[in-house]
Design goal:
The chain contains 9 helices and 10 strands. It is α/β, with parallel strands linked by helices. It has one domain: Rossmann fold, CATH 3.40.50. The longest helix is centred in the middle third of the chain and has 29 residues. The chain is globular and about 55 Å long. The termini are far apart.
C-alpha cells in the first residue's frame, strides 16, 4: 500500500527495514523530515500503515508499506521484485531490521539463532547486493547498516548476536572501501544500549547491562537515529553515538581478549548473579 503526498515524483526514496519501532521508526522520521519518499518494511502491516499515513501528511511525502518477514530466505528477492514492478527506485537503503537472543548458547533453540543469523547477516547482505548494483549503475546512493557496539568484542550470553554484529561492521567497512569513487557511500551505525524495545524482544530486561541505574545511561532511539542519519548524509563510514560507547568500543583494542570477554560476560549476567 502506498500513502501518497503531493508533488512527490521527483523526490528521492529511502527503504528502511525494521521501520515499525525503535531506531528504525526514528530513522524513517529523519528521512521524511528531509523530504525523502519512504518504503517501510516490517512484519506489522497495521503499524506501518499508521506510520505511513502520519508521515505522509506531516511531511508531504509518499510512503509505501511492505509487510514482510525478512527472516525468510526468499524475502529480499520478493521485496526487490515488488518494488521493481511498481517502478520504485531506491536511493537510500537502511538495513535496520534485526534481533537478539539472550542466554547460554547450548540452551537457546537452534531455530531462533538461525533466524537471527538470517535476518541480521544474510538478509542484510542480500538486500545490499540487490540495491547497491542499481545505485552503482546510477552512480548515486547511500547505504546505512545498523550494527552495534557489540561488534567490537565477544559477547558471552549473547554469543550469536555479538558475532552477527561483528559481521555487519566488517562487511560494511569493506564495502565502503570497495565503493569509493562510485557515488555510493556505506555507513555503519554502532549504537550501544538504546531505549528501543530491543531488550524486551531479547528477554534481557533484567541483565546488568540494561538495568536502570546501571553504569551507562541508555541513549534514546531519536538520539541514535539522528546521529546515524547525519553520518549517512556526510558519507561517514563509522558512527558510534555517545562518548561512553565510543570509549567502550575501542577499549578492547588495548585489553587482553580474555579479560574483555570476562567483562562482557559480567555485564550480560542477570542481576543477582
Amino acid at each position: 500500500m502506498t500513502t501518497p503526498g503531493m508533488n512527490t515524483q521527483s523526490k528521492q526514496t529511502a527503504l528502511i527495514t525494521g521501520a515499525s519501532g525503535g531506531i528504525g521508526l526514528e530513522l524513517t522520521k529523519e528521512f521524511a523530515r528531509d523530504g525523502y519518499n519512504l518504503v517501510l518494511v516490517a512484519r506489522s502491516k497495521e503499524k506501518l500503515e499508521a506510520i505511513a499515513a502520519d508521515l505522509s501528511k506531516q511531511y508531504n511525502i509518499s510512503a509505501t508499506v511492505v509487510a514482510k518477514d525478512l527472516s525468510k530466505a526468499s524475502a529480499p528477492d520478493e521485496l526487490y521484485n515488488e518494488l521493481k514492478t511498481q517502478g520504485i527506485g531506491i536511493d537510500a537503503l537502511v538495513n535496520n531490521a534485526g534481533f537478539a537472543t539472550y542466554g547460554k548458547f547450548v540452551e537457546i533453540p537452534l531455530e531462533q539463532e538461525l533466524q537471527e543469523m538470517q535476518l541480521n547477516m544474510v538478509t542484510l547482505t542480500h538486500l545490499t547486493k540487490l540495491f547497491s548494483k542499481d545505485m552503482v549503475e546510477r552512480r548515486n546512493g547511500k547505504i546505512l547498516n545498523v550494527a552495534s557496539t557489540a561488534a567490537f568484542q565477544p559477547g558471552p550470553l549473547m554469543a550469536v548476536y555479538y558475532a552477527t554484529k561483528a559481521y555487519v561492521l566488517s562487511f560494511s567497512e569493506a564495502l565502503a572501501n570497495e565503493l569509493e569513487g562510485t557515488g555510493v557511500t556505506v555507513t555503519v551505525l554502532c549504537p550501544g544500549p538504546t531505549e528501543s524495545g530491543f531488550q524486551e524482544r531479547a528477554a534481557m530486561q533484567d541483565s546488568k547491562l540494561v538495568q536502570k541505574g546501571g553504569m551507562m545511561r541508555m541513549m534514546t532511539s531519536p538520539e541514535v537515529a539522528k546521529q546515524g542519519y547525519e553520518a549517512t548524509k556526510r558519507g561517514q563510514v563509522l558512527v558510534i553515538p555517545g562518548f561512553t560507547n565510543q570509549v567502550g568500543a575501542f577499549l578492547p583494542r588495548f585489553t587482553p581478549r580474555k579479560l574483555t570477554t570476562r567483562i562482557a560476560r559480567s555485564m550480560q549476567e542477570r542481576t543477582g548473579h
